[in-house]
Structures are given as C-alpha cells and as structure tokens.
Design a protein that fits this description.
elongated
Length: 81
C-alpha cells in the first residue's frame, strides 16, 4: 500500500505501454498515419517480447486486447478537418 492508500498497479512493460499511449495521443491529435506506424512497431515489439518470454500470459493478452481496441479506433477514424 502506498503512502496515501493507493494499491500498486500490476507492473507492465513500460516500452509497450508507452507505445500504446503514443498511439492514443496520435489519434486524439488526428495523426492517423503516425498511429499506424507506431501500431506496426508495437506489434513487432510485442511479438519479440512474447517470443523471448519477457511478458507473462496475462499481460500479453491484455496488450492484445488494447491492440484490438486501437485497430477498431483506427478503422473507424475520420479526420475532423
């Protein structure tokens, strides 16, 4: 338990989580092309980490769910300008 009573979040992979956050920021700023490039990079990194045994099954499938959600967002993405 932390100083103010918050529970510690389950540790994930900071590189993967950073890329997911980057994609969300790109989409919120109407940068679909950049988001697609980062998504491709994210998939490669996730596959490499899975193959190397760095990620446990729970985190791997959590990240896969996040990727699916992002892919749906990209598929329905419409520019606002």
């Amino acid at each position: 338990m932390g100083l103010f009573g918050r529970k510690k979040k389950a540790a994930g992979d900071s590189e993967v989580e950073g890329l997911i956050e980057s994609i969300k920021v790109d989409l919120s700023n109407n940068y679909k092309d950049s988001a697609v490039v980062v998504l491709k990079r994210l998939k490669g990194i996730l596959a490499d980490k899975r193959k190397a045994g760095v990620l446990n099954d729970d985190k791997f499938f959590e990240y896969c769910d996040a990727i699916s959600s992002i892919e749906e967002d990209i598929a329905s993405f419409k520019r606002t300008y």
